[in-house]
Amino acid sequence: MPALQDIDAKRQRAPSQRALATRKRVFDAAERVFADRGFDGATIRDIAAEAGEPVGTIHHHGGGKEVLFHRTVARRAEPLSQARRAALETLKRDGTVTAETLLAAFFRPIFDLSRDDPRWRDYARLVSFVSADERWRSISAACFDPTAELFLTELLALRPTAHRAEVAEAFVFSVSAMLALLTSQGRIAALGGEMRAADAQIDHLIRFCAAGLAPA
Amino acid sequence: MPALQDIDAKRQRAPSQRALATRKRVFDAAERVFADRGFDGATIRDIAAEAGEPVGTIHHHGGGKEVLFHRTVARRAEPLSQARRAALETLKRDGTVTAETLLAAFFRPIFDLSRDDPRWRDYARLVSFVSADERWRSISAACFDPTAELFLTELLALRPTAHRAEVAEAFVFSVSAMLALLTSQGRIAALGGEMRAADAQIDHLIRFCAAGLAPA
DNA sequence: CCTTATTTCGAACAGGTGTTCAAGTTAAGA
DNA sequence: TCTTAACTTGAACACCTGTTCGAAATAAGG
User: Fold this and answer.
1) What is the pLDDT along chain A (216 residues), one digit of tens a residue?
2) Does CATH number 1.10.10.60 belong to domain B16-63?
3) Quick one: CA dihedral A11, A12, A13, A14, positive or negative?
4) Where are the domains of chain A?
5) Were both Cys, which of A62, A77, B35, B91 would link to B125 (CB 3.0–4.6 Å)?
6) Which chain A residues in 54-113 lie under 8 Å from chain B, judged by CB atoms?
7) Burial class (CB within 10 angstroms; exposed 0-12, middle 13-18, buried 19+) of B162
8) CATH class (in words) of the domain with range A74-213
């Protein structure tokens, strides 16, 4: 995989407002198309059409399909991780760290962001593609593992007798359940009949995983 | 999506042993390649090379890429569902139905089959591609939802006060955790350091989900 | 204001893509 | 044994893929 380096690595002039706006259009379009069709199902021309830009522009700002994919995932990873870390800091400051509050701190930010901005919903679907495929392991390692590590450490402190590997398993189960809630509304609807309110679903997700994380 | 009809719909002669062996080679190869690269990442020529057959043969037995994909998923769905249903029947006969034993009956068959035959590991990864993408909703609806329905009914009987939608959510969380255990060993290893034995992981998965399913 | 780095643009390229097809081979069923 | 349905084979087809590239337009920095 091509290395991901700073998009403005050897630049000699600041980018114009116009260029910045174009770049934003390119990444927003890439996010939508990659979220809809995955890496292999998406084409540069799909993304170009979605962005309303010519194909050359996608390559210019994206740096090639694989780098564009990586950058599209990375773009929202930092804001998301910061929101998660901020929620964690609040817990630690207030001394209210439990399995339930830890999971809430980790899960809630992406649901909160999705409520306000539909682009975060696309991003969530994109992340689920990244998480599902070992091929993108290095992307999740770079974008999400450092913050996951922080939460894992806290969970481990709550269960001093458990092995790290066991807590890591429980954490992966929890994250997969979170992604399922974000992306498998169709399956839930098919099995469950009527749909529940998003808030009820999120509360349920947190209770479900917290119960699983509790000592046996 | 092209309709999936019986592979031997309007046949006038029984297929030869040779043809049957070729067909098996085609589907085994398709299973491996689709599991590795997903639907869009796989190519007919990849599958042909993996099977050691010319491209025309893949199309002859597979019926086109999309139908081949559907048939490849469907091929092992019935044996898997039967194993799950048999385990469920045993529980009901013995009167040992609990959240924990129900989940064990649903989860264990694919892990047991994977232990004996690596092709079931490929199949599990293929199923996780199908489950992750709304595009294949109709495939999981046809192949997996009927049996899921059976287990959902039993889970609902265990929690008479819960709404069906809530139990459906918990079931989807559980299935996603099962698929994560089958496909995300890389992520578990990255977070957890050393790896635990498969049996310990499966027991943990069942305890994790059973705890989440228990009444609040 | 100039200079020129950067961006915009889309035609062109080499190499795939799924699918078709016609000719030759095999073997089921009478 | 004979007929012919079924299978095997790979070349050919039309279209699509990511990427390149050079010329024109834009605007940052002096």
Assistant:
1) 566 777 887 899 999 999 999 999 999 999 999 999 999 999 999 999 999 999 999 999 999 999 999 999 999 999 999 999 999 999 999 999 999 999 999 999 999 999 999 999 999 999 999 999 999 999 999 999 999 999 999 999 999 999 999 999 999 999 999 999 999 999 999 999 889 999 999 999 999 999 999 876
2) yes
3) positive
4) 16-63, 74-213
5) B35
6) none
7) middle
8) mainly alpha
